[in-house]
Specification:
The chain is α+β, with helices and mostly antiparallel strands. It is built from 9 helices and 13 strands. The protein folds into 2 domains: 165 residues, Peroxisomal Thiolase, Chain A, domain 1; 140 residues, Thiolase/Chalcone synthase (Peroxisomal Thiolase, Chain A, domain 1, 3-Layer(aba) Sandwich), CATH 3.40.47. One of its GO terms (molecular function) is 3-oxoacyl-[acyl-carrier-protein] synthase activity.
């Protein structure tokens, strides 16, 4: 299958680290050193997970004449910060593009939902139940975040991305999905309590960041090595690594383990913070114009609940 186009939407409001210095005394230097984050985007009062997903969808459809809204026969959306748990983000996007009687699925596997969503598309394609899919990832982290939390309140940003995926190549610029692998490690370490979001309680909480760091570095490195080996691609042949945008120290650790120079990694966390399952797709959208024929790209993710995955793309 092929990724035909990808587009991102980011709210206009920029929240820099000075906001948290004023709020709870965390310095810009302290935040930057530990996370790599200098700023993040915040949805306006009129925006939410659904509206950001709709805007990303409008943008991705506007980028092509080969894939129109009526062509969509499958919608899969990912988020762990839903605006509505019943009328989901996938339903909202379906209403926006006005296509009836197609499979519409919303999923949540924390920050790894992007790859789980694409793998669901792979399954529908393999069964002959769809040919052209729309995947949306959207996070409204600031709706759930507690900014007074000095452990994790400064990590989160808002944003969305949309991808058009087809069973056949539609254009020379399409990215072929050579392979995709996902897994769950919910039985490992402190997966059940390291990152939680209980809406009726305190929102997003991350009491065991060290445990997240250790397992994110381990699993993102391991699954990247596995997918490269499975497809006979060497690390040296990898053009870009697009990791989940959680923490710049995690990215640097994974690069070190893989033996990749820093310039091979695509990172947006400095300007956007942790945008959850949308982060890697937003990074892919920014990298898209730079990709050339023969380029190999790995997207690797790790999320709360300790879900993980990697996807190998080729132009």
């Amino acid at each position: 299958m092929y990724i035909h186009q990808v587009a991102a939407y980011l709210p206009a409001d920029v929240i820099d680290n000075a906001h948290f210095t004023r709020l709870n005394g965390l310095s810009n230097e302290w935040i930057t050193e530990r996370t790599g984050i200098r700023a993040r985007r915040k949805a306006s009062p009129g925006e939410n997970t659904n509206t950001m997903a709709i805007e990303a969808t409008r943008r991705v459809l506007a980028q092509t004449s080969d894939f129109a809204a009526p062509d969509v026969d499958l919608i899969v959306a990912g988020t762990y910060t839903p605006h509505d748990t019943i009328y989901t983000v996938a339903h909202a996007v379906q209403r926006e593009i006005d296509v009836s009687d197609i499979p519409v699925v919303s999923i949540s596997s924390a920050c790894s939902s992007l790859l789980n969503a694409i793998e669901i598309v792979e399954g529908y394609f393999a069964m002959g139940k769809a040919r052209r899919a729309l995947v949306i990832v959207s996070e409204h982290n600031t709706a759930y975040n507690n900014e007074d939390d000095t452990v994790a309140g400064h990590l989160w940003g808002d944003g969305a991305a949309a991808l058009l995926i087809s069973k056949e190549r539609l254009a020379p610029t399409d990215l072929r999905v050579r392979d995709i692998r996902t897994g769950g490690a919910g039985n490992i370490g402190k997966a059940d309590e390291s990152v939680t979001l209980k809406p009726v309680e305190r929102g997003i909480v991350m009491p065991y960041g060290k445990d997240v760091f250790i397992h994110a570095c381990t699993y993102m490195t391991r699954v990247t090595q596995e997918i490269l080996a499975r497809n006979a691609v060497s690390v040296e042949e990898l053009t870009y690594l697009i990791p989940h945008q959680a923490n710049l120290r995690i990215t640097k650790n994974v690069l070190q383990q893989l033996g990749l120079p820093e310039e091979r990694a695509v990172s947006n966390i400095e300007d956007l913070g942790n945008t959850g399952c949308a982060g890697a797709a937003i990074a892919l959208a920014s990298t898209w114009p730079e990709l050339r024929p023969g380029n190999q790209v790995v997207v690797t993710v790790f999320g709360g609940g300790y879900s993980y995955g990697a996807m190998l793309l080729e132009r």
